[in-house]
Amino acid sequence: MGLTKNHLVVRISRETKIPQTRACRILELAFDLISNSLLRGQKVELRNFGVFSVVNRKPRIGRNPSKPAKRLLIPACVAVRFKAGKKMKSGLKKLKPAAKRQKRHQPTASNWRRTKSR
Q1: Same domain, 12 and 36
Q2: pTM for the full predicted model
């Protein structure tokens, strides 16, 4: 499991020696400020961490993975984009990439006929 809000509250409380209830209120306030800024269409820039911005996604044609022959319209929507900051990017470069998973329906010698007939 990844990092949760509760983990953040406990860590902030421990590091700053403030009660967890107060740390929770501070964290919730920070999240509310970020959310409200994004809902107003504003960019949120946190130096060395990254930038949150609102993007408009155009409608597009997609496919259902279980029925790839059938096309469906994915409607336009508004989404939040995150771009990592310099410090985070440099830290990510130090991580080793995870092993790539093989695609589920990738043709191989053993399943070539089954894949081709779909």
Answers
A1: yes
A2: 0.68
- Asked if residue 113 belongs to a domain, the reply is no
Q: Is residue 48 part of a domain?
A: yes
3-state secondary structure the chain: CCCCHHHHHHHHHHHHCCCHHHHHHHHHHHHHHHHHHHHCCCCEEECCCEEEEEEEECCEEEEECCEEEEEEEECCEEEEEEEECHHHHHHHHHCCCCCCCCCCCCCCCCCHHHHHCC
Q: What is the pLDDT along the chain (118 residues), one digit of tens a residue?
A: 789 999 999 999 999 999 999 999 999 999 999 999 999 999 999 998 999 999 999 999 998 888 888 889 999 999 999 999 999 888 888 888 776 655 555 555 555 555 544 4
Domain that holds residue 59: 43-92
Q: Are residues 56 and 34 in the same domain?
A: no
